[in-house]
Amino acid sequence: MSEKITFTFNGEVVTCESGQSVAAALIAAVNRELRRTRFENEPRSMFCGIGICYDCVVVIDGVANQRSCLVEAKEGMKVVSAP
Amino acid sequence: MIIVIGAGPAGLAAAEAASRNGSDIALIDSAPRAGGQYWRNRGAVKGYRSERADRLFAKVSRAESITHISEATVWSIEKDGEIFRVNYLQGGAESSLTAERLIIATGAYDRSLPFPGWDQPGSMTPGAAQAVLKGHGVLVGKKIIVAGTGPFLLPVATGLADSGAEIVGLYEANNPMRWLLSLHALLLNPSKFAELAYYAKQLKKYRITPRFNRAVSSFSGGVATVSRLGSGFRFKQNKSETFSVDVVSVGWGFLPDVTLGGIVGCDQKVDTDGTTVFSVTTNQRSSVDNIWIAGEATGIGGADLSLIEGEIAGLSASGQKVSLANKWNRFRKEIFANALKRSYPIQDGWQSWPQGSTTICRCEEVRLSEIRESVSELGAEDSRTAKLFTRAGMGLCQGRVCSRNVSEIVAGLTGCTVSDSERIVSSNRPIASPISLGLLGDGKK
Question: Complex ipTM, two decimals?
Answer without folding.
Answer: 0.96
